[in-house]
Amino acid sequence: MKSNTYINEESLQKFTSIIANKIHNGFIIIERNDTLPFAVLSKGRKEVDHTFNFFLFCVTLGLWSVAWIYLTYVSSKEKNIVIAIDEDGNTFEEKCYLE
């Protein structure tokens, strides 16, 4: 059986620090495994106030439409990320695509 010798105290400390920072920024833990170690975090959808954005659209004579489209289609989607420690002991973060 392969042992997890690549996980040292410093990399584990950095791993838990990153997770704590993400939780502070609004993410929640979906899954966590301390033996591998990795964690899957999710941040819910952000509601877009279309009435306020329409008002800004009218005031700026349509220039706000670019930001409004961005808020509607990109920023309002649910975000899922994976935080893990690789074989070299480095902590990394990647987007996670859940079905």
What are the SSEs and their pairings?
Layout (H helix, E strand, L loop, with lengths): L8 H16 L3 E6 L4 E6 L6 H10 L5 H11 L3 E7 L5 E5 L4
Antiparallel strand pairs: 1-2, 2-3, 3-4
Question: Which features does this protein show?
Answer:
single chain, 99 residues, alpha+beta, four-stranded antiparallel β-sheet, 4 strands, transmembrane
Quick one: overall form?
Answer: elongated
| Number of strand segments | 4
Domain tally: 1
What would the average pLDDT be, to the nearest integer? 89
Low-confidence stretches: none
Q: Tell me about the largest β-sheet.
A: 4 strands, antiparallel
Strand content: 15-25%
Category by helix and strand content: alpha+beta
Strand/helix succession? HEEHHEE
Report how far apart the termini are: 32 Å
Strand order of the largest sheet: 1-2-3-4
Helical content, roughly? 25-40%
Structure described in brief:
The chain is of the alpha+beta class.
Overview of this protein structure:
By secondary structure, the chain is an alpha+beta fold. The chain has one domain. It is 37% helix and 24% strand. Strands 1-2-3-4 form a 4-stranded antiparallel sheet, covered by helices on one side. β3 and β4 form a beta hairpin. The mean pLDDT is 89.
